[in-house]
Write a structure and sequence with these properties.
Layout (H helix, E strand, L loop, with lengths): L19 H17 L3 E2 L5 E3 H8 L4 H6 L1 E4 L5 E4 L4 H10 L9 E10 L11 E10 L4 H18 L5 E6 L6 H13 L7 H9 L13 H5 L10 H16 L4 E3 L11 E8 L10 E5 L3 H4 L7 E7 H10 L12 E5 L2 H16 L4 E3 L6 H10 L4 E5 L1 H5 L2 E6 L5 E5 L3 H8 L2
Parallel strand pairs: 1-5, 7-8, 12-13, 12-14
Antiparallel strand pairs: 2-4, 3-4, 5-6, 6-11, 7-9, 9-10, 10-11, 14-15, 15-16
Helix pairs in contact: 1-5, 2-4, 5-9
The protein binds adenosine-5'-triphosphate (ATP) and magnesium ion.
Magnesium ion binds next to loops.
């Protein structure tokens, strides 16, 4: 990139026209899949009051501790750019009385989210998420469906060898007992821990399990798995989910290190992995959060959801050369001798555009030869020549660029001609 007077803020990026076909395709697949699973779109604001995220995401999470874009607005309110969707979606669910709708309420959202992180490959400060939530029922069928929707998204996009990483992190009944065991175990290994983990031991012990530091890996490997400490209800829930995954041949690996960074998760947590993606940079994570809605001031309401990072998906689509439909080129290009011809071209083009046919007019002061070169470069299907001869007889000379065939037709027959010969 050139060194210019103004540069992108660190951690942000332009989505240039050449990358847009990936985004258009991805968004089209998201729309198709949310329809199939019967999720309705919900748009929430890009910013909310800071306290919503502090409460909803959790004080002891990386997001709230160090990643939020928080500022005081001119009315002295503390505002935060959304670092994720769930808290805003649940705020909207409560505020709009959606609990009176038939349950579950199934909604999806997409848009930019903001986290003050150290930028690196696949890690930005402004990025996009696709988020889905099924609110209002604790049935493990919904856990399966939300996982299956994520799975189908990657499948439809053409990713290979898809599988889930799966864990259950219990509920307020059984998790404290487990955390006691975990902390006991870790107390015996404090010398082998990174500085962050020493803090986590007191503040957020579950997060000890997803530490990425090399030195902590042996300690994690020996830690007791939480699934062996689930209460009866959590155990039944987990078994039912596994049964559905087995029945639908959805491959999964139990991963006792998978705990998710957000405090409100209960029971199911999962990620989707595919060939070449997942183990280093998650592309999609989700799970159940039966405690969140009450925490944010609603009635106790179980809920399950997931979020997928779209930049990471687009990067993988590019790396794996997954084909996407490109931007269609112009059907027709008008090569014009002079301004009078350009005026007539604009009149023809107006009619063509009314019929949804894409076209371009050659710009002033260029030879026919230069205009044909331009038409070729833009991959126009037809080139129309408009000069004195054609203007005199209200005709056009139209050339099919692929076959080289050309003929003179009346100008008012252009649409019929293109319809017959194909766009
Ligand atoms: P990570 O472990 O990579 O930090 P996370 O646990 O913070 O991920 P979530 O909060 O679950 O991620 O967000 C859901 C998805 O959003 C992730 O699976 C990932 O694809 C994407 N994501 C998260 N942080 C970033 C980022 N800084 N830049 C781009 N994508 C991101
Ligand atoms: Mg993160």
């Amino acid at each position: 990139m050139a060194k210019t007077a103004f540069q992108l803020p660190k951690g942000t990026r332009d989505i240039l026209p050449e990358e847009q076909p990936y985004w258009a395709h991805l968004n089209a697949v998201i729309r198709e899949i949310t329809d199939v699973y019967q999720y309705a779109r919900l748009d929430v604001p890009v910013f909310e009051e800071t306290a919503l995220f502090q409460r909803g995401v959790g004080e002891a999470t990386d997001i709230v501790e160090k990643e939020m874009y928080t500022f005081t607005d001119k009315g002295q309110n503390s505002i935060t750019l959304r670092p994720e969707f769930t808290a805003g979606v649940i705020r909207s669910y409560i505020q709009n009385g959606m609990s009176s709708l038939p349950t579950p309420v199934k909604v999806w959202s997409t848009g930019p989210v903001f986290r003050y992180e150290r930028p690196q490959s696949g890690r930005f400060r402004q990025f996009h998420q696709f988020n889905a939530e099924a609110i209002g029922d604790k049935d493990p069928v919904l856990d399966f469906e939300i996982m299956d929707m994520a799975f189908r998204l990657y499948q439809r996009l053409g990713f290979q060898k898809l599988s889930f990483q799966l864990n259950s992190i219990g509920c307020p009944e059984c998790r404290p007992v487990y955390l006691g065991r975990l902390v006991d175990y870790y107390r015996g290994h404090t010398a082998q821990l990174c500085e962050d983990c020493k803090k986590r031991l007191d503040k957020n012990p579950l997060r000890l399990l997803d530490c990425k530091q090399d030195m902590c890996q042996p300690v994690i490997a020996g830690a007791p798995p939480i699934v062996q400490h689930l209460c009866d209800e959590c155990n039944r829930h987990f078994k039912a989910l596994c049964l559905y995954l087995d029945s639908l041949n959805r491959p999964y690996t139990l991963n006792h290190r998978l705990v998710r960074g957000l405090d409100y998760y209960t029971k199911t947590v999962f990620e989707v992995w595919a060939e070449g993606i997942g183990s280093q940079n998650a592309v999609c994570g989700g799970g159940r959060y039966d405690g969140l809605i009450e925490l944010l001031g609603g009635q106790p309401t179980p809920s399950v959801g997931f979020a997928a990072g779209l930049e990471r998906i687009v990067m993988m689509m590019q790396q794996q050369q997954i084909p996407v439909p490109g931007l269609p080129g112009p059907v027709i290009y008008f090569a014009c001798q002079h301004q009078e011809a350009q005026k007539q071209a604009l009149i023809y083009l107006s009619g063509l555009r009314d019929s949804g046919i894409a076209g371009l007019v050659g710009l002033g002061g260029r030879s026919f030869k230069a205009q044909f070169r331009e038409a070729n470069r833009r991959q126009a299907r037809y080139v129309v020549t408009l000069g004195d001869t054609e203007l005199g007889s209200s005709s056009v000379l139209i050339k099919h660029m692929e076959t080289g065939d050309q003929e003179t037709i009346q100008g008012d027959q252009l649409i019929r001609y293109i319809t017959e010969h194909g766009r």
